[in-house]
Amino acid sequence: ELHYEVVLDAGGTHSVWFSDAVREELPASVAAKVEMTVMGPNAPAETLALTIDDSGESWIAAGRPLNGNDVMVKLAFVARGEPFEIEIPYLAQK
């Protein structure tokens, strides 16, 4: 089983980490073609191609700042030759 953690930052810097079934960290290279599409009510959709960070532990991207609570992020990637896709709501902290 493959698990992932997505961190969406209000400033626009986003990260994705992968782990196995017992939550042991996996190298970022376990996935490929990692992409996020940020969709909000006040701006056109922004598609971000993530890259592996310098440590090889996560995927990162820098995009526009996130505004409001009506933002959805679609995460897509390929792992073990299989495509995955999920939509994640962004909830701004108060």
Can you describe this structure?
By secondary structure, this protein is mainly beta. The protein is 0% helix and 61% strand. The protein contains no helices and nine strands. Strands 1, 2, 3, 6 and 7 form a five-stranded antiparallel beta sheet that branches. Strand 2 (13-19) and strand 3 (25-26) form a beta hairpin. The N and C termini lie far apart (34 Å). The mean pLDDT is 92.
Helix content: under 10%
Measured on Cα atoms, how large is the radius of gyration? 13 Å
The percentage of residues in β strands lies in: over 45%
Largest sheet: 5 strands, antiparallel
- Count of DSSP H/I helices: 0
* Unreliable runs: none
Quote the distance from N terminus to C terminus.
34 Å
Specify the overall morphology. elongated
